[in-house]
């Protein structure tokens, strides 16, 4: 059993916090008013404008045609991401099947066939024998 090394765990936890800090700061700053962010910088605490900001971002129309909303872009991104994920899974499964079929064909072509006798006709013969003294009517 290995000894637990607290320093290793501390380093991993600090690394995870270091990587998560920019995401947390972006989310927390987005809940503040734009003028507060411009004048005071980024925030690490939540603000009071979160619902208003995200409602505006998700429902405001924009883009070249003026018909695109943030919610429509999120939906489109999710559909594209799922499509790519499913496509990769299907492609991987097809490649695995092709590999298995190819290996099967290679194995079958490399298997020696010399152990099958030349007189083999391709059918089985079975013999059924009745006990001694049986009548011939049982053979019908």
Characterise the protein shown here.
With 140 residues, the chain is an all-alpha fold. The protein is built from four helices and no strands. The protein has helices spanning 6-29, 34-40, 50-59, 70-110. The chain is elongated, with a radius of gyration of 36 Å. The termini are far apart. The mean pLDDT is 90.
Record keyword descriptors for this entry.
0% strand, 140 residues, mainly alpha
SSE ordering: HHHH
Structural class: mainly alpha
Most strands sheet? none
Q: Helix tally?
A: 4
Mean pLDDT: 90
- Distance from N terminus to C terminus (CA atoms, Å) equals 74 Å
Total number of beta strands: 0
Helix content: 55-70%
Classify the beta-strand content into a percent band: under 5%
Shape label? elongated
The radius of gyration is 36 Å
Concise summary:
This protein is an all-alpha fold and 140 residues long.
List the helices and strands and how they pair.
Layout (H helix, E strand, L loop, with lengths): L5 H24 L4 H7 L9 H10 L10 H41 L30
């Amino acid at each position: 059993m290995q000894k637990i090394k607290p320093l290793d765990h501390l380093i991993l936890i600090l690394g995870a916090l270091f990587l998560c800090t920019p995401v947390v700061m972006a989310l927390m700053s987005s809940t503040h008013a734009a003028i507060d962010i411009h004048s005071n910088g980024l925030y690490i605490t939540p603000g009071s404008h979160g619902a208003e900001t995200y409602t505006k971002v998700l429902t405001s129309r924009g883009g070249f045609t003026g018909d695109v909303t943030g919610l429509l872009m999120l939906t489109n991104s999710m559909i594209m991401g799922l499509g790519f994920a499913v496509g990769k899974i299907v492609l991987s499964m097809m490649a695995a099947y092709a590999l298995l079929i190819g290996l099967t064909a290679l194995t079958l072509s490399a298997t020696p066939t010399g152990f099958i006798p030349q007189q083999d006709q391709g059918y089985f013969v079975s013999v059924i024998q009745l006990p001694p003294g049986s009548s011939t009517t049982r053979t019908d």
